[in-house]
Amino acid sequence: MIRGLYSLLMSGAQPLLRRKLRRRGREEPGYLEAVEERFGRYRVRAEPGALWIHAVSLGETRAAGILVDALRRLDPSLRLLVTHGTATGRAEGQALLREGDTQAWLPWDTPEAVARFLDHFRPRVGVLMETEVWPNLALACAERGLPLALANARLSDKSLRQAQRLAWLSRPAYASLAAVWAQSEADAQRLREAGARVSGVLGNLKFDAEPDAQRLAQGRAWRAATGAPVVMFASSREGEEREFLRVLRAQLDMARSGRGRRNTDRLLAERPVQWLIVPRHPQRFEEVAGIARAHGFSVSCRSQWTDEGPAAAEVWVGDTLGDMALYYGLADVALLGGSFAPLGGQNLIEAAACGCPVVMGPHTFNFAEAATAAEGQGAALRANSIEDALRHALVLVADEAGRRCMVEQAGQFAQAHRGAALRCAQALLALGPPDG
């Protein structure tokens, strides 16, 4: 009865989904690609027996890439079906594909679309990355005897409360999963409370990511040639850049006027700093550059730089994909995007792996355990606001010995938590029948 009502609502919402895709497609053309796949109508070839990985967006797809590398080391003949929900996830996922692999959109969660998806592709085992569990999809897989796992699984307190409010729908979905491999003990406990049968705590796949060595070295070389410390706002989210630039403009004006009395004003007056903003979402690159100009800053965008390095400007904007290692190499310290608004924070593990100290805001519930561990080990600092974070960053760039200590701790923190990818790959290959 309850599932039938949910299915009816999802079916009725399909026109709204089409409208949303058209609207998003005006900014991100990737959303207009193969739209009918969203409704379970596929033209791509489908050979049964692939291992199916669903990675909804960019972060999950990067985590999936780490898992795929481990899977291919264990089984070089592996064939993949990779599905996504966002345009950035799908674009990133293309790099995971080899000959014989397939990429598609995951369908909207109606019984009919899910059935067409499963009938068309007939995977031997499926794995959902991190968080996304759709009721009709999960239950349909269980009814067909298709093992469906949740890997690198995490569940925040906020998401648990939401799941509990919809327990009549979410609890059967979680319970139907063949395996759940949690990132941490705290995640495992929350997942159990949501109804999942947790099979193990395997750690966070993202610790096994290897930064692009060439880009990292390029960023460090450019930093050495810059002549001023570089403070980066990494993976910033909507609303955060405007507040950051507002605070920065006010403090710079105060420092230059000689009227500043705060420690931040003094530090800004004593030492020039290069500012770098790297927005989380590519469709906002131009918007963020425009916000910086509106606050009176000169702007240089990464896409316009030559091999010689960044062009002179008060604010640099990282407007390219796949360059995070370069940006972290370029930065002396990074403010963590998504953590200064109640959005849960972005991934700080990549910064640690690149040896970049991090200043986090108060909202890190998406990476709660990693954030707490990084802070405890001295690889990250906690700030109450963007103004507080700027103060921390300026103190760090003025304290070379303290910053070097944080760089060392960041590397040790990243190294100490590796190994989840191999553990997860082994568990996943053991879950389903052999291909063929």
TrEMBL record:
GO CC, alphabetical: plasma membrane
Catalytic activity: lipid IVA (E. coli) + CMP-3-deoxy-beta-D-manno-octulosonate = alpha-Kdo-(2->6)-lipid IVA (E. coli) + CMP + H(+)
Single GO molecular function: Kdo transferase activity
EC number(s) from the headed UniProt entry: 2.4.99.12
Segments forming domain 3-deoxy-D-manno-octulosonic-acid transferase N-terminal: 34-209
InterPro entries: Glycos_transf_N, Glycos_transf_N_sf, Kdotransferase
Localization annotation: Cell membrane
Pathway stated in the Swiss-Prot or TrEMBL entry: Bacterial outer membrane biogenesis; LPS core biosynthesis
Class of the enzyme per the UniProt entry, highest EC level: transferase
Biological processes annotated in GO: lipid A biosynthetic process; lipopolysaccharide core region biosynthetic process
Positions of the catalytic residues: 60 (proton acceptor)
Keywords tagged on the record: Cell membrane, Lipopolysaccharide biosynthesis, Membrane, Transferase
Superkingdom per UniProt: Bacteria
Function: Involved in lipopolysaccharide (LPS) biosynthesis. Catalyzes the transfer of 3-deoxy-D-manno-octulosonate (Kdo) residue(s) from CMP-Kdo to lipid IV(A), the tetraacyldisaccharide-1,4'-bisphosphate precursor of lipid A.
Protein family membership: Belongs to the glycosyltransferase group 1 family.
Name recorded for this polypeptide: 3-deoxy-D-manno-octulosonic acid transferase
The organism of origin for this protein: Ramlibacter rhizophilus
